[in-house]
Amino acid sequence: MSVATSNRLAGKVAIVTGAGQGIGEGIALAYAREGARVVVAELREHRAERTASRIREAGGEAIAVATDVGVRADVERMVELAASRFGRLDVLVNNAQGFVPYTPLEDVADEQMDLVLRTGPKATLWCMQAAFPHLRRDGGRIVNVISLAAERGDPGLGPYNAAKLGILALTRTAAREWGRHGILVNCIAPAAMSARGKQFAERDPERFQRLMETRPVARLGDPEGDIAPIAVFLATEESRYLTGHTLYADGGGHLAPS
Q: How far is CA 141 from the centre of its chain?
């Protein structure tokens, strides 16, 4: 990444969960490039530090925080560390999500369901609740990452689909309840060549290619080049009248058959 160019987020402090790789890393880098100070929250400490180091090496400001969003105490520590280190919190991006193997619905185990719900909607709720007192001070932004797979009911992804629709419901509720506090809450439903995208392409290359051919833009997006700019927009004053929405950053994939 390069140093800030437009400074649209100058003076802002942002937490990005799951920022050690993929979409989360792309968003963290883009926020820093726009002048934000970034808290890189990631389950794996070495991944968090890798992203934070990239930001610092480019002249930005970032700290790495090893965080398991499925543990409420970790979430609360993450938010308090951000506020104490930088003195404020303006943007929260809930991107982290635990995954389980593709499983037919009839075979989904309680442990699988518990994991995705704990690291998905429960973690998102905990993050939003912990951030709320800070975000309400100057009118903050929350960006939650969901998935078109949840709306389509993609096979083999029952727990994941349920988790992402749960996050959508929380997003809309928060948008309705917290708008009076100046907090805007929106979703991004991305389609990016992240680790899971690569796994899908490798696991079933023929189906992957067929899916690409049905899309208006016949490729998966780049996390930093295609997805992160949407998250930047949702954190700036340019989106000040937008809340409760889902932006499909998927090259028109939501128009294509599954």
A: 13
Domain 13-194+223-249 class? Answer: alpha beta
154 phi/psi in degrees, rounded to 5: -55, 135
Active-site positions? Answer: 160
Q: In the chain, where are the structural domains located?
A: 13-194+223-249
Helix (H), strand (E), coil (C) string for the chain: CCCCCCCCCCCCEEEEECCCCHHHHHHHHHHHHCCCEEEEEECCHHHHHHHHHHHHHCCCCEEEEECCCCCHHHHHHHHHHHHHHHCCCCEEEECCCCCCCCECHHHCCHHHHHHHHHHHHHHHHHHHHHHHHHHHHHCCEEEEECCHHHHHCCCCEHHHHHHHHHHHHHHHHHHHHHHHHCCEEEEEEECECCHHHHHHHHHCHHHHHHHHHCCCCCCCECHHHHHHHHHHHHHCHHHCCCCCCEEEECCCHHHCCC
Distance CA 52, CA 9 (A): 17
Q: In this predicted model, what pLDDT tens digit does every residue of 207-221 receive, in sequence order?
A: 878 877 787 787 888
Task: Tell which wins on pLDDT, 153 or 221.
Answer: 153
- What percent of the chain stands above pLDDT 90? 82
